[in-house]
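Example 3.2
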Amino acid sequence: MTPTVGIEETEIRALRFAMGLSLVVGFGMLALKIFAYAVTGSVAILSDAAESVVHVVAVSFAAYSLSLSLKPADRSHLYGHDKISFFSAGFEGAMIILAAIYITYVSADKWLHGLKIENLGKGTLLTLAAALINAALGGYLVWVGRKHKSLVLEANGKHVLTDSWTSFGVVAGLGLALLTGWMPLDPLVAMLVASNILWTGGNLLRRSVGGLMDEGDPETEGRVVQVLTQATSQEGIQFHGLRYRNTGSRTWVEVHLLFPQDMTLATAHRLATEVENRVRHELGLRAEVLTHLETLEDHKEVHSHHPSEHIPE
């Protein structure tokens, strides 16, 4: 049995609005940082602008991914399109890493071939404004992504927050350069920013691979087991063979339910449906629940004859 949980129209509108806002603000911040670099020549500000270029490209891909992930299942994608979320997160992580490599290269090149910085105070203020805007936007995107279980939007929000921390780091470094007059602080700050970006990009890539490989999550498993234990014990039945996976915006749960041999099929079907509904309700997730009905007395014997169907406990 596979009850389907749809996505509410209000939820779709919230996700699309958040992604559209991210794209519009991303272009605005890119323009602001390019202007700041043009008036200063600061390699730290250039590194911040380079990260924003990557961000705009990544958000464009994420917007497409979000749109695709919201499409219902069809004949060519029987389980829906949710897993595009993991491709999007991986793409964004790879872009972040490329930005970090570019920032490190430019910083070293500028340091070796001479530093020339002008209007540093003005550039610092412009970068600070960009940092504050991105911090507010990133927090909003992560909140909406977690609320609606959208990995695409959450990853995008974390990228925006990374962008804001990059800008704050640049502001701190440029402020010290203004106070001390030691200009090598400019490329040093850029390199520190690059190392932080590498860390974030690596985490996004790891999460992407984990999702595509259906990596287990102890927290999710603990919640599912708790709900199933309560639901089945109240109905006087048992369960085994639990499997689950996250497809990016929903959780799929598969489990074998064990009923007394003398119970009628109609009663077993009704109880299984109640268990499925309770799992979906109490997990607080968009979930697909698939149950397989077995008799308690002979299920081990049946599985012993079909070892390929056995699921480790």
